[in-house]
Amino acid sequence: MTTDLAERSRTAAITPAQMEARIVRYGELQPCKTAFIDAHTPGSNQKENFTIIGGGVSESPDQHVHIALPHGFNIGAAGQPPKCRNSLHSHRTAEVFFVLSGRWRFFWGRWGDAGEVVLEEGDIINIPTGIFRGFENIGTDYGMIMAVLGGDDAGGGVIWAPQVIEDAADHGLVLGENGKLYDTKKGQSLPEGVAPMPTLTEAELAGYPEPTAAEVIPRHVARYRDMMAIGEKTPVTVIGKDGLLPDRPGFEVDFLTRGAAPAQMHSHDKPCVLMPMRGYWKLTWDGGSSVLNPGDTASVPEGLNHTLEPSMTGEASLFRIKATDDAAGPTWKG
């Protein structure tokens, strides 16, 4: 919700140094190559995972968290070379991706064969909660996808398809029921009193939907060029109650273009996150200004008077994420 500052108290002006501490530059992202249980599994062992805002769902103590402040959602990213894939898993809250670079195939289902869709740069997918999903870079160069996970604790972690846990054990990684990874290749073992993470039973697996592509794509995928056309003059609500992808997962995603950039100073009643897709954006606030580049992530405090405008000519687009008061729970409706 955008708020007129005359109607509420606002955050005091903050210095450029204070705001810079809330901006994670693309070139300064710190990757983790041991974040998840498939870190040694061939085909998945070249992944780089990034936790940008919030604690994320990493299973490794090596994961660097750039901004730990709670926002009501988490921001992360995955970087992968060609033919590298992320193994089948599920979450209890929403998982939204937009493609920053590369060409990606998203697939879902117990064995990953229920349906799939290919996304290009700028496309966005709101993956239905409670289904197994995976993704792979099918482009010709290193690719990056940016992620939004619902809830401050992101639903308590990752639920892996049983075969992922079994394959990982064959390559030396064991996941404890405490959600932490142990590498037997490094001589690590489960601590006393900690059992292995149990795999889902057949009865539990039966509760995971197997939607087709025809069921998922129309309601859960938005194409970049469509958003550019629709949002030529006004911001587009991509994910939200009345969005292109109608959903209420505990946050809202808006899409801004050059012609839809807010010309007047404004604030929000919750922190908002700005993630440029194309072009360079000048963020001005009470206290200073800074330029955001594609791949950067900026957290604007609640109540801070600010505005945005593209700083150079050419194509400009940006995703804006704001928490809502909706529960960050299941969103899939079969």
Question: How would you characterize the overall build of this protein?
Answer:
The chain has 334 residues and is mostly beta strands. The chain folds into two domains: 31-222, Jelly Rolls, CATH 2.60.120; 224-323, Sandwich (Jelly Rolls), CATH 2.60.120.10. It is built from five helices and 26 strands. It has helices spanning 16-20, 162-170, 202-205, 213-220, 224-230; strands at residues 2-3, 23-24, 48-53, 65-67, 73-80, 85-90, 95-101, 104-108, 115-119, 124-127, 133-137, 143-150, 159-160, 173-175, 181-183, 221-222, 236-240, 245-246, 251-257, 267-268, 272-278, 281-285, 288-292, 297-300, 306-310, 317-323. It has a seven-stranded mixed beta sheet with strand order 2-24-21-26-19-17-18. Strands 4-3-5-12-7-10-16 form a seven-stranded mixed beta sheet. The protein is globular, with a radius of gyration of 20 Å. It starts with a strand and ends in an 11-residue tail after the last strand.
As a percent range, the share of helical residues equals: under 10%
Describe the sheet with the most strands: 7 strands, mixed
The total strand number stands at 26
CATH uppermost class of the largest domain: Mainly Beta
Overall geometric form: globular
CATH architecture call of the largest domain: Sandwich
Please tally the helical runs, counting DSSP H or I stretches of 4 or more residues: 5
Integer count of domains: 2
Numbering strands along the chain, what is their spatial order in the largest sheet? 2-24-21-26-19-17-18
CATH topology of the largest domain: Jelly Rolls
Strand residues, percent:
35-45%
Which class do the helix and strand fractions yield? mainly beta
End-to-end distance, in Å?
Answer: 29 Å
Low-pLDDT parts are 1-9
The mean pLDDT is 92
The rounded Rg comes to 20 Å
CATH superfamily of the largest domain: Jelly Rolls
